Amino acid sequence: SPTLGLIMIAGGVIDGVTLSLGFGLDVADILVGIILSVGSFAVKLVRLLSSVVPQGLIAGITERKTRVAIVGASFTGFEVSNILKRDKRMQITLINEKDYFEFTPGVLRCFVEPDHFRKISFQIPRMNPQLLVGHANSISDDTVSVQPLRSGVSEETVPFDVCVLALGSSYSGVIKPGKQEPTLHDRARTWQEASKEVKAASTIVVLGAGLVGVELVGELVCAHPEKTVYLIDRSKEPCKELPPRAREYIQKWMNARGVQLLLGTSYQAIDKKGAGWACTLGDGSVIDADLVYRCMGAPPRSEPLKASPLAASLNPRGCITVTDTLQVSGSERVFAGGDVMLHAKTGEVKSGWTAENNGQLIAENIKRLVEGRELLTYPEGIVGPGKRIPEMCVVSLGKHDGVFVLNNFVLAGSIAAIAKWAVEWTLVGKARCRPLASALMGMGESVIKALFSKAQPPAASDHPPRSSPCKFKLAAH
């Protein structure tokens, strides 16, 4: 065979070299014999594998892998990465502004218990997938331009066959990490400083009575009941996205703990005043505060697309609009999920739960894209035809109380706090690929989706079916 012929030629070369170096025929014969034996064994092994292993697996050893660039390493990005890294056909580059993962829904406790950060974060491994710590400057049809955070390093270009945009959203303040916190040590130091500020404050204002603002107030009043805490929002009820029973429980809980609820109230300005702040309300009254936390807005972090060919996919708020297959509008090789994207058909509330489900469908559709199969649509591809993903949320009210919501089912009290701890432990463990946590989370998700998936509203005539024809196929490598 050609392979054996090459081995014989190599043996002849070794023979000639050893003789020219004066080692004699014995040494040359030994070396040639070794080469022929090893080569013959290798040829037989490959032939044996070819007869018992699917041809695609053997071919995949020599083919170039599909290059997948994942921008962002929170719930969506990490879910896609952890699913695809088990697929030998994929070569994954994970691009992130920090070298760690943190469980964002659990960070609010760090304002009063900074050491809690160690329980909800971990260092991202540098390999499998390859991690590139840096800021994504721009995204084209087939490359991501990244400015590494290492000093003195010029911009790098990461080519891709498929890209996943999981850029997330931003908050003012420290609730979400900034560019000045690229390492786990930097972020831990931030929480130590934030906790000291809270301890030193007497009056604290929280703007926004959504899920984040309510949880933050809960942590503050439980850890520091002596402090005056205001919660201000235009809405007349806290957490307006939750069922009535959950809203009522939260409001009674806060009234019982002396929270100054200014609901149905707007604010005009937040101005620096000495060492603190002056919060001017809509009626002109002013609240003097030592600390002010803005827990509203959360704009999507879609800046890399604004000067790219994909800019047309951005809506006025900056969300990336996607098709039902979670592909970015106008592109067949770029997907988006999590806080940064808008899926008009579902209009789902953004959370770690929904972001993780986005990632599951994106990972499956990338595999289908590589194979040339029809792509699944969201959310039917996750929960089945005619259904939508259950709405699930856990709101902490300090360490020992809370509200658990699953569709219209509401569970309040200490058992909800236990549920929040369980979700936190399993999700962080799953992100770290720990077998027990992954197994428990997988079983829990399957049960919830099987028992609580809601009926999908009647589809409009322009909604595609459960599977969407794959018009685009990655070139064979």
Catalogue the unreliable spans. 1-29, 49-62, 459-467
Compute the number of helices: 11
Q: Tell me the strand order in the biggest sheet.
A: 7-6-5-2-1-8-17
Mean pLDDT comes to 85
Radius of gyration: 28 Å
Structural class: alpha/beta
Q: Report on the biggest sheet.
A: 7 strands, mixed
Distance between the termini: 25 Å
Describe the 3D structure.
It is a single chain. The protein is of the alpha/beta class. It has helices spanning 2-20, 24-52, 55-62, 75-84, 184-200, 211-223, 244-256, 352-371, 380-383, 414-431, 435-452, and strands spanning 66-71, 90-96, 100-102, 121-123, 130-139, 143-148, 156-159, 162-165, 203-207, 228-233, 260-263, 267-273, 276-281, 286-289, 291-294, 320-321, 334-336, 341-342, 375-376, 387-388, 392-396, 402-406, 409-412, 454-455, 467-468. A 7-stranded mixed β-sheet has the order 7-6-5-2-1-8-17, with helices on one face. Strands 11-10-9-15 form a 4-stranded parallel β-sheet, with helices on one face. Strand 13 (276-281) and strand 14 form a beta hairpin. The longest helix is centred in the first third of the chain and has 29 residues, at 24-52. The protein starts with a helix and ends in a 9-residue tail after the last strand. Mean pLDDT is 85; it is low at 1-29, 49-62 and 459-467.
